[in-house]
Amino acid sequence: MHELSIAMSILEVAEEEAERRGLQVMAIHLRLGAFAGVVKEALLSSFEMARENSAMPQAELIVEDVPIVVYCPACRKESPAASMQEICCPICGVPTPDVVHGRELEVSGLEVRDDGTEVTPTTPETDGAEPTAETN
Question: Of 59, 100, 114, 124, which one has the fewest beta carbons inside 10 Å?
């Protein structure tokens, strides 16, 4: 079950970022594609086990499922694939090897607590910028 090592790596990345910024991580947002080779339920279960012995036992893992999107050379369009078994254009039916989305396995953001009252979402787009705070 490689999901445990993936969960441990996710926690490690979040711990490093939290330590660098001096913040407490409340939630980790992950984008998970259908072709990532990871079973979502196994990853969530592994994450719960891994976080118990981490510096972030309270952190949640929030998974965004990323559907398979293919590029059709005949239609010259990106479209959702008909299914995982049939990687072809849903419009014209032409098979295509060009998978545009669906392989993702990436941390897309962190929700951090900076003073015990505010949770601030941090994403690659806001990294280094002044993020907007949300009060919980």
Answer: 124
Structure tokens at 117: 């009252």
Q: Please give the pLDDT value at position 32.
A: 98
Say if CB 8 and CB 43 are below 8 A apart: no
Tell me the residue range of the domain where 62 lies.
Answer: 3-67+102-122
Query: In what order do the strands lie in the sheet containing 134-135?
Result: 60-66, 24-33, 105-113, 118-122, 134-135
Calpha distance 59→16 (Å, rounded):
14
Q: What rounded mean pLDDT belongs to the chain?
A: 85
The pLDDT of residue 103: 95
- CA 12 to chain centroid: 14
Q: What separation, in Å, do the N-terminal and C-terminal C-alpha atoms of the chain show?
A: 35
- What pLDDT score was predicted for residue 37? 93
- pTM, rounded to two decimals: 0.79
Burial of 5 (0-12, 13-18, 19+ CB in 10 A): exposed
| Residue 30 belongs to domain with CATH number | 3.30.2320.50
